Amino acid sequence: EAELEPLVFHGRVTMGGKGVAVHVTLRNRSTPDLARHYFKSLQDGTFNTALPNSGVYRADVARVDAQGDHIPAGDVDFSDPARLVEIAIPDTATVVVHVRAEEQPVSNALVWTAHLSETAGLVEQNKRGRSTDSHGDVKFEHVLPGDWGFSVRDEVSGRGAEKTLSLHESKTAEITLDIKGTGCITGTIRDAAGTAVSNVPVDCLVVV
User: Which residues pair with 160 in a beta bridge?
Assistant: First the structure.
């Protein structure tokens, strides 16, 4: 009987053009198999990994020296084991969020940040949450460049705040979310297939 040889791929992970040690999670986009595959790159970014199938994989990485922040790396082609696989990530940004209410810091407030990117008319959302410290501050590290939304909501009062910020490579930005005495409504608009859609006008009717 013929033996099946494993598909062994060689490659390198770079961040800002430099090799980096990361934990990599792969999800096959070419087959209905929902299983995920994990491996780690070395300090210089190089890696060897065996995969059950060739094809396009959605990659997600987390720096070995970080606190578990995951960075989406997009679709990566693992179709040819003879070709060096490059997983290139731009330099990331850092954001410090200050949450205030009536000019006072708000501790233990859950701050959400979301990056919306539109691909083929569909919205793909990378979202993460983190709570403020005793000073009402929270730091998000390893954030990809682009437009991000930051929001916070008091579950008890329904008050909230939201701002959008454009982030650049290797930069640190600060933003203040001032919780006002007004309510807020959050949600997601989806089509009949359940896919999130963008650029949809929304009208609000207030009945008093």
Answer: 153
